[in-house]
Design goal:
The complex is a heterotrimer of chains A (about 120), B (about 700) and C (about 90).
Chain A: H1 14-30, H2 32-39, H3 45-58, H4 65-83, H5 89-93, H6 104-107, H7 116-122
Helix pairs in contact in A: 1-4
Chain B: E1 2-6, E2 9-13, H1 19-25, E3 49-52, E4 59-60, E5 71-73, H2 77-92, H3 108-116, E6 141-143, H4 153-162, E7 168-170, E8 177-179, H5 193-197, E9 203-205, E10 218-223, E11 232-238, E12 241-247, H6 260-264, E13 278-281, E14 284-287, H7 290-303, E15 309-313, H8 319-331, E16 336-339, H9 357-360, E17 374-378, H10 382-385, H11 387-399, E18 403-407, E19 418-419, H12 425-429, H13 433-440, E20 444-449, H14 456-472, E21 483-486, H15 492-497, H16 505-510, E22 516-520, E23 535-540, H17 545-548, E24 552-555, E25 564-567, E26 573-576, H18 589-599, H19 609-619, H20 633-646, H21 650-655, H22 671-674, H23 677-687, H24 694-697
Parallel strand pairs in B: 1-5, 15-16, 15-22, 17-18, 17-20, 18-19, 20-21, 22-23, 23-24
Antiparallel strand pairs in B: 1-2, 3-4, 3-5, 6-9, 7-8, 10-11, 11-12, 13-14, 13-24, 25-26
Helix pairs in contact in B: 2-3, 7-18, 8-18, 8-19, 14-20
Chain C: E1 11-18, H1 26-42, E2 48-52, E3 59-64, E4 69-73, H2 79-91
Helix pairs in contact in C: 1-2
The chains are: A mainly alpha (about 120), B alpha/beta (about 700), C alpha+beta (about 90).
Chain lengths: ~120, ~700, ~90
């Protein structure tokens, strides 16, 4: 079932914005197992949740309400695209390029070609 | 050979064949409903009518034996009118169910009415078509008897091939009904084949009713691994799901039949799947990355001494992963590898058992079983352990007047079988009158069961006694092998071929307590046989008893998700093909072992499937020649010589424990069938004979 | 022929591949028929895998400790030559 779209809202004040941000954070965390299942990812739920947290942490210091609204809009767009399968595996995996747990770059050969191990981990 | 003329063209046919077979050889398609090559001729559908010169009426070609010089005409106006007329009669009482019938798209009636029937109907109002009550044949076969055209293929199959004589016809003419009449279910392990045989949608599959249409399925040819027969199957998938499993024709193995477990256990592939590597923390499993899991396993392996590392292979281990595991362990200087057939206590094999192929294979071949005229079963129930081979024995019973006897607990087979008690002394004594029959037989067979391997001394004794007995069968045809071993697990023959299961009982008894245990899909290992402080790794596709014992769980692929090699009980090497990809983070089994070898610092020399298969041929040359069953004359001669030297004695036999049967419930034997809802229903209905509730029994059309 | 003391401590497995009917494997087939019982009686726990397949050349593989393998071709040799070569193989500790 496609996720319903939400009307773009405007935050009344910081408290309202905080509420909206936390609600979106919870949506992301709750759907981590679903994302793995939908996109057939080789990741674990804790890894997905850590990555989501990292994204939110990057914007922790933002105080401008307009910017926060814009980020909420972008976040919701990403969420819909991920859950409705408008994104594909490759797009979702872009978030995990430097992920330590995947370790694919570490096992590639010196000339960048794939070794058995890098193919095994990538699948 | 006899010459007949079909539509003017001469064609040579074997004498005694039917006119319909002559037409097939000539390349002409004759429509038929009741005729089937593997069943007796009935001749009641009348769809195969052809015109024969100088015959007053059109002739049912399935029932007409060919005579030299016969002129058969299949394209004349008379034949066309006959076909249209027969089709009109069949459709007159056939309900208009196509939109809701499961068989739509693969229905013989649909196809033949389009091709051979009239283009218009003469029925102008739906004046009361015949209505017939649906019968309850069990949780597997759904009946919609309104659609039945009374071709009696199901009745002939059940009576001849499956040995289930409860299915029959009652009444005659318009009132004829197919069923069991006394409200019995069709309790045979081959019951699913009537679904394929029925030309219309009267008998369909209950577990996956209404779930697909035939044209949206992708077909993959593969081989079954639920038992050691290696039946040829076709896996039908839609997207990422297996929707059904159908048989393929293989005259040498399974003809056209598959057992119910093969056909219906696949819904266990969707439940309790291992999808991510797991590490145990206390009493919980936590998902982790492949790197972390493999690193942990490698560390644990390094911490144990060579003698303290053991591996156990389960029923679905393919040859590629067996050879990878064996090579890995050998590089670690560890030699203790076991098969689950020796579980649950991990006792090892009888000395020299795995050396000679003739010891552990079904030497007479599956096709050869049809020719037997006296068979002795020792510790095996072929109906439960190899249902397809059982149909061959039934054929021998019907056509060859074969006599059967068994040294085992009481068991019900679908042919007459004398029970000689459950002591191996009966085998050594050979005093019962049945043994006279065995000695006088032209094609005697002694079939030893894999259950004997739970006690290596019993297996050794039985093998030697069987060879001694075979030696006294002086009337046997030249080139015929009397001693056979029936495997019940798909991985067993490959494991023996590769020398995987070569640890003898004596060596196993001397080994120290295990500190590192690698379970390759093995779920039947008794927890008591593994020390409490051992580090256990489980690699498999389902989270069953084995995974519950593990410290690290590595998710592997099931048989529908990998391209792998299996060897059946007669030594035939066959390939399983991937119809799907393994779920989420699961990987190919041999690839997991190859990755582990890199983490352990002892990388295996092959990194591709071709490399592994080359290694397989290096270890056992039969892997280079798939789909062929190779005789083992040297091994047979040596096995007989070794047995002759051993001289099995009656005193020793008396000291051995009673023979037991390894399979108690046909429907719940391994991880996949235990996780299948359909198999659970079958177990309730057939093994425990608990009647279905009224709701389950009569699903409305 | 006595096999007493013939097998080294490091031999873990001996594999013998042969063709069922080909003339090149005749020597190996004869060797297996005559010597296998004696060898096994002396070393019952040593796996001696006898594998026949159509059209395969006669060869032997010895697997020693740590997975090291040695391969010998026995195609076209007589039974005595086969025996001599195999005795050499099983005595080595490669």
């Amino acid at each position: 079932m496609t996720l319903p779209s939400v009307t773009t809202a405007v935050s009344r004040d910081m408290a309202h914005a905080r509420q909206r941000v936390l609600s979106m954070y919870r949506d992301w965390l709750r759907s981590a197992p679903e994302i793995i299942k939908l996109h057939d990812l080789s990741l674990t739920t804790p890894m997905v949740r850590r990555r989501v947290r990292l994204e939110f942490e990057k914007k922790r210091q933002v105080r401008d309400l307009g910017v926060i609204d814009h980020l909420l809009f972008k976040g919701r767009t990403e969420y819909e695209e991920t859950m409705n399968m408008w994104k594909q595996n490759a797009h979702v995996m872009q978030y995990f390029n430097e992920e330590e747990g995947l370790a694919i770059p570490r096992y590639q050969r010196a000339d960048g070609s794939a070794s058995f191990m890098s193919k095994f981990l990538r699948k | 050979m006899v010459e007949v003329f079909v539509d003017g063209r001469p064609v040579q046919v074997p004498e005694g064949s039917a006119a319909i077979q002559a037409c097939e050889l000539a390349g002409v398609e004759i429509p038929r409903f009741c005729y089937h090559e593997r069943l007796a001729v009935a001749g009641n559908c009348r769809m195969c009518l052809v015109e024969v010169e100088r015959a007053p009426k059109p002739v049912a070609s399935c029932a007409m034996p060919v005579m030299p010089g016969m002129k058969i005409k299949t394209n004349t106006p008379l034949v066309h009118k006959a076909r249209e007329g027969v089709m009109e009669f069949l459709l007159a009482n056939h309900p208009l169910d196509c939109p809701v019938c499961d068989w739509g798209g693969e229905c013989d009636l649909q196809d033949q009415s389009m091709r051979f029937g009239s283009d218009r109907s003469r029925q102008h109002e739906p004046t009361g078509r015949r209505a017939v009550e649906n019968k309850n044949l069990g949780p597997l076969v759904k009946t919609s008897m309104n659609r039945c055209i009374q071709c009696t293929r199901c009745v002939r199959f059940a009576n001849e091939v499956a040995g289930a004589e409860e299915l029959g016809t009652t009444g005659r003419g318009n009132d004829m009904q197919i069923g069991t009449y006394i409200e019995k279910t069709l309790a045979t392990e081959m019951s699913g084949n009537v679904i394929d045989l029925c030309p219309v949608g009267a008998l369909t599959a209950k577990p996956y009713a209404f779930s697909y249409r035939a044209w949206e399925l992708k077909r993959t040819e593969s081989v079954d691994v639920m038992d050691a027969v290696g039946s040829a199957i076709r896996v039908d998938t839609r997207g990422t799901e297996v929707m059904r499993i159908s048989p393929r024709e293989n005259d040498d193995v399974n003809e056209e039949w598959i057992s119910d477990k093969t056909r219906f256990a696949f819904d266990g592939l969707k439940r309790q799947r291992l999808t991510h590597p797991l590490m145990r923390e206390g009493d919980r499993f936590v998902p982790c990355t492949w790197e972390a899991a493999l690193g942990r396993v490698a560390d644990a392996a390094r911490a144990a001494q060579p003698e303290e590392r053991i591996a156990v292979a389960g029923p679905f281990a393919d040859a590629e992963s067996l050879v990878a595991l064996k090579d890995l362990f050998n590089r670690w200087d560890s030699e203790h590898l076991f098969l689950e057939t020796n579980a649950p206590e991990l006792v090892g094999q009888p000395a020299g058992f795995a050396d000679l192929r003739a010891n552990y294979l079904f030497n007479a071949t599956i096709v050869g079983a049809e020719q037997a005229d006296a068979v002795l079963f020792v510790g095996t129930n072929p109906r439960h352990e190899a249902a397809i081979i059982n149909t061959r024995f039934r054929k021998a019973f019907l056509h060859n007047r074969c006599d059967f006897a068994a040294i085992s607990p009481e068991m019900t087979l679908n042919y007459d079988c004398v029970n000689l008690g459950d002591s191996l002394a009966a085998l050594t004594d050979a005093k019962h009158p049945f043994f006279e029959r065995l000695r006088a037989a032209k094609h005697p067979m002694i079939v030893l069961g894999s259950g004997l391997l739970e006690r290596p001394d019993a297996a050794q004794h039985a093998l030697h006694a069987a060879h001694a007995l075979a030696k006294t069968c002086t009337n046997a045809a030249p080139g015929w092998t009397a001693v056979n071993f029936l495997q019940r697990q798909a991985s067993a023959a490959a494991a023996f071929d590769l020398g995987f299961a070569a640890t003898t009982a004596a060596a196993a008894a001397k080994r120290p307590a295990a500190k590192f245990v690698y379970l390759l899909g093995a779920d039947e290992v008794a927890p008591a046989a593994l020390p409490a402080d051992a580090f256990v790794v489980y690699q498999g596709s389902h989270g069953d008893a084995g995974a519950a014992l593990a410290d690290v769980v590595l998710p592997g692929a099931a048989y529908t998700e990998k391209s792998a090699t299996y060897v059946n009980t007669e030594g035939r090497v066959q390939r399983v093909r991937a119809a799907l990809t393994p779920p989420l983070a699961a990987r190919d089994d041999w690839a997991i072992l190859r990755a582990l070898s890199e983490f352990a610092g002892t990388p295996l020399p092959y990194a591709s499937v071709q490399g592994v298969r080359a290694r397989l041929a290096e270890v056992a040359p039969s892997f280079a020649a798939p789909n062929v069953q190779a005789a083992q004359p040297t091994a047979l001669a040596v096995a007989a010589a070794v047995a002759a030297k051993a001289k099995p004695s009656k005193a020793k036999a008396k000291a051995l424990p009673a023979v037991t049967l390894p399979v108690t419930d046909f429907y719940l034997t391994d991880a996949i069938s235990r996780n299948s809802r359909t198999m659970a229903q079958c177990s309730r209905a057939f093994t425990h004979q608990i009647a279905e509730s009224a709701h389950e029994a009569h699903i409305a059309v | 022929m006595s096999w007493k003391g013939a097998v080294s401590q490091t031999l873990r497995e001996l594999r013998l591949h042969m063709c069922q009917t080909g003339p090149g494997s005749a020597g190996l087939r004869a060797f297996v028929q005559t010597e296998y019982p004696a060898l096994k009686a002396q070393y019952p726990d040593l796996p001696v895998l006898v594998r026949e397949a159509a059209g395969v050349e006669a060869r032997a593989y010895g697997r020693f400790a740590h997975g090291r393998e040695q391969r010998l071709t026995l195609e076209g040799l007589s039974q005595q030559d086969v025996a001599a070569k195999l005795k050499q193989l099983v005595a080595s500790s490669a």
